[in-house]
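Incident log, structure service

09:12 report received: a user says their structure output differs between two submissions of the same chain.
09:20 pulled the input from the user's history:
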Amino acid sequence: MHISPEQHTALTHIGENIDRLITVDVTARGVVNPLYRAARAVQDEPLTARAARGLYEQVAPNDVVILATGMPVGPLQTGEQDGPVGIATLARSLVLGLKANPVILTDPTNVELISAAVRSAGLFVYPLEESLQHPTAACVMAFPVAETEAEALSEHLMHNIRPKALISSERAGANEHGEYHAALGRSLTQWCAKVDILFERAREAGVLTIGVGDGGNELGCGLIRDAVLDTVPNGRRCQCPCGGSVVPRFVPDVLIIAAISNWGTYGIEACLAALTGRREVLHDRLIDERVHIACAAAGAHNDGPLLLDPGTDAVATPLHGHILDLMALIVENGADLGGLYRRDKWPWLDR
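09:34 re-ran on a clean worker, output below:
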C-alpha cells in the first residue's frame, strides 16, 4: 500500500519517539545505545518506522509473512520469553492490520511454548495449509537443525508459499565460521534451527527481511558488525572452540535494536497501528500479560533469574504493560501532530 506524505510525516514522528522508548537501557547491559546509534547511522529513518513502512508497502491481504524466533538456551534448550512473546503479538498485529498469513519458524524444542504464546495472543494455531485458509490463524513450524534439511525446506517455502516478508526476533545466526552463539559467546549450534539459510534465500530473491535484537548475537546484527565487535563483551571472540565473533553474518534490509527484543517487535506494531489508523493493531497490556503467563507456563524462562516467572529479560510483566501504554499514547498523539495545543481540540476553552 502507498504511504501518503501526511502518513510519512506522522510515521516519522511516531517512530522517532517509539525508538527512544524501546532503547531506554532498563536492563543496564550498556550495549543498547551504541548498537542503536550504529544501526541508525546506516538506516535513513527511525528503525521501527522503517520496518513498519516496509511491511505496509509490501504485504497485501492473504500474503504470507514468515516470522522466526526462539533462542535455545537454559534448561533443555527450551528458550526464553524474549522473542516468542513479541513474535506472537506481532503475528496478531499482522493479521489485524494487514490481513496477512503468519508462518512462525523455530527450533524443535520451542514449538510448544511458541504455540502457547500464539494462542494466548488470540490466534488459532493450525498446520500450514489449514492456517493459510483461516483469517485468524498462524502456523508454528519446527525448522530443521541440519543444514541440508534446512536448505531443502527453505527452497520449498520460497517456491510454494512465496513470503512477502521475513522477520526475525531474538534468534541466533551463523557467524563467519557457521557457528551460532548466545549473547556471551556460548555455542548454540547443535540446537539452533538454521533459519538464516531461508533469510539468505529471501534476501537474494528481493524479499523484505527484518531483524530485531538486543545483544548483537541476533540474526540481522551483521548490519552493524563493527559496533558489536567493539561494544559487546565476548563480541569479538566467543567462548566456544570456533574462536570467532558472536555476530551473525546475515545482513537484513532492516535492523531494529532495542533494550529488549520484544520491545522492538512491539514498536513495529505501534507504527503499523499508526499507518492503519487502528488502535487494536498494537496489542494492549492485558494481552501482553496473558501471553507472558502462557509462555512461561509452557516452559519459557525469564532470562536472568532463569525462572518460569512471567516476564522478559528479568523485567516483570507490569513494566512491559507500561511500555505498551506509552506506545499507545505516542501513536494517538502522533496521529494528530500539534493537536495538543489546538484550541478546537478543547472546545470548553472557547467561551
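09:41 both user submissions now match this output. Likely a transient worker issue. Closing.
09:42 reviewer note: The chain is about 40% helix and 10% strand. The CA atoms of residues 47 and 256 lie 5 Å apart.
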